Amino acid sequence: MRAEKLDAADELRGKRDAFVLDDVVYLDGNSLGALPAVVPGRVEDVVRRQWGELRIRSWEESGWWTAPERIGDRIAPLVGAAPGQIVVGDSTSVNVFKALVGAVRMAGEGRDEILVDATTFPTDGYIAESAARMTGCTLRPVAPADVPGALGDRTAAVLLNHVDYRTGRLHDLPALTAAAHGAGAYAVWDLCHSAGALPVGLDEHGVDLAVGCTYKYLNGGPGSPAYLYVRRELQDRFDSPLPGWNSHAEPFGMRSGYEPAPGALRGRVGTPDILSMLALEAALEVWDGVPVEAVRAKSLALTDFFLECVAEYVPEGRVECLTPVPHAERGSQIALRCDDAGDVMKRLVEQGVVGDFRAPDVLRFGFTPLYVGFADVERAARVLAQTLG
Amino acid sequence: MRAEKLDAADELRGKRDAFVLDDVVYLDGNSLGALPAVVPGRVEDVVRRQWGELRIRSWEESGWWTAPERIGDRIAPLVGAAPGQIVVGDSTSVNVFKALVGAVRMAGEGRDEILVDATTFPTDGYIAESAARMTGCTLRPVAPADVPGALGDRTAAVLLNHVDYRTGRLHDLPALTAAAHGAGAYAVWDLCHSAGALPVGLDEHGVDLAVGCTYKYLNGGPGSPAYLYVRRELQDRFDSPLPGWNSHAEPFGMRSGYEPAPGALRGRVGTPDILSMLALEAALEVWDGVPVEAVRAKSLALTDFFLECVAEYVPEGRVECLTPVPHAERGSQIALRCDDAGDVMKRLVEQGVVGDFRAPDVLRFGFTPLYVGFADVERAARVLAQTLG
């Protein structure tokens, strides 16, 4: 009854029809977003007509060449960025490398330390280690809360996750960015688990560089290209470690000397991956007319409701919630710990409730406000309770 | 008449039906290969069923996770490599960076110079400059023919193109690789303009590392992912500058310490771009039963015939052929120089003969043996002659 009322009052309810869904409760959109209904037709057009019929002409006529910056501008409002600061392309890992090396080069001599979120998704840490090694820096892992105290006059850059992939904890982007700036360091944010789920405010909070994937809350498809944000005022100083020909001021001049393009284009590298990129472009159409604030409000309502249902249905002590209860510290997922999490998730999936398992003992449930409803939440909690026994 | 006879005797003639073609003479497959007929249906299945219905389960059930190495093994026989040495992913530029930095690290201390093909496709030169800068090396551009004389005991690596993108000149991979080895340096080859057009023989000739794109003669689609070859004996020493989580020995262990996977997997970086990658996998099916030697024989016959027709139809002196006449020095394209090349190519395209223009004065015609026939060649030469006036 409670779920029905919440669903009836949900302004975003109609958006569910923009996705291909079935009777599964899909709470894994924080790993791979569901298929937007507009995508298959668009991809077919890209393959059959743009590639199959127009062939090479499509680089110009179908707008292939300018896709990275065009789609970047489509993502921009979702992360609070004005146009001209984001390019799409490459994987998140590759973009972390560009962003961190770029930040260290901006910081200049005398700053030879990179701080990295000690609880980061592993790839960010591995790539940060490589960026540090290749720029003569040392890498120091620090819990995000300890970053302000760890910053110093040797800190070149700080790499942080906006939302922790495991616990779903939302970190304080405005305060941590301000702290980095206070120490003269550059703030690099990984938005994989926040973009499309909550307001980010890159421009408003003066974030320097940011990266993110597009296959979670942005529903771009498996392995769809990631993006790189470089704040406008820093673009002239952004010195990419991957200066591919797509980032050249005159790419078709075929000149042997490298001269970087102005603006966000400087973040491009090689030839863009058109099929995946244009599938993402189509997927982003579901955001038309959707204010990210409404998404955030629903996301919190969904996770609140899930926590309530779990508290009501699941015997106390059977699971431990790793996700913070205060809204200001919560992303759009709930992580529950229990010793038999791997087995529990297997049984949940068999019963049509799809979340994921993170070794060794975490059940992760992601709530995508565009297509998850309150009845889904209640059903998930009931099935979870039955499964936990 | 001559063309008809050649077409009738062409063993690869039937392969044309494996592609979506029209009445255009498409001589730009060295830029973007034509659409293989099997691709649209496969892509539709990947989008609608694998992503749309199975969603997250497809990482395992649809073989998404292992696609980079599986498709690498599909490319391997085309470039003369045994299985387990190639992974697909990222752009050519990104793979050049991995390969060159990897080579310099293998070379070790005391070797601080990288030689690069002075006539290279620009991105290789830009990326080589970055690799040199980030590993403390100097970069020296050298004409490929001068490489043997330029090699020394400080040379760490040599980056060369198997076929020159502009002139279509085929460089002597066996001899230049042997020369690099003779000086104790590592040979890194860019196969963009040779793979799928002629035998490469990576294993046979002891090439150390190689990269290539898949959207030219391999017909993978616009911006389809590139590949990286690391010779088996060197894999344990391959130390990637982009150690993303996909290259970890235990990627789902989510460990903070990096431990590289054994084998070719070490060349992976981030989450693979599945739509583009599986389109490529389908595209590679057209190679079933096609020996690359047959492709090479037809390629030479096509370019020989084009040169004959041009000599016959085009007034002497109107164009200058930049492509070497000896077979041993010719790839699968013909480059003709004339002052008004930009305008000429525009008019050729209007008349249904599609090649491309490379600034400032080159007409480039690529011959893809799987779908270009001898009648196409004759028609192209006739239209060219009329256009040149």
From TrEMBL, chains A, B:
Top class in the EC scheme: hydrolase
Cofactor: pyridoxal 5'-phosphate
One Gene Ontology molecular-function label: pyridoxal phosphate binding
InterPro entries: Kynureninase, PyrdxlP-dep_Trfase, PyrdxlP-dep_Trfase_major, PyrdxlP-dep_Trfase_small
Keywords, comma-separated and alphabetical: Hydrolase, Pyridine nucleotide biosynthesis, Pyridoxal phosphate
Origin superkingdom: Bacteria
Residues reported to bind pyridoxal 5'-phosphate: T92, S93, F121, P122, T123, D124, D190, H193, Y215, W245, T271
Chain positions with N6-(pyridoxal phosphate)lysine modification: K216
Entry keyword Hydrolase: yes
Classification via Pfam families: KYNU_C (PF22580)
Catalytic activity: 3-hydroxy-L-kynurenine + H2O = 3-hydroxyanthranilate + L-alanine + H(+); L-kynurenine + H2O = anthranilate + L-alanine + H(+)
EC number: 3.7.1.3
Purpose: Catalyzes the cleavage of L-kynurenine (L-Kyn) and L-3-hydroxykynurenine (L-3OHKyn) into anthranilic acid (AA) and 3-hydroxyanthranilic acid (3-OHAA), respectively.
Subunit structure: Homodimer.
Protein name as it appears in the record: Kynureninase
Organism: Streptomyces afghaniensis 772
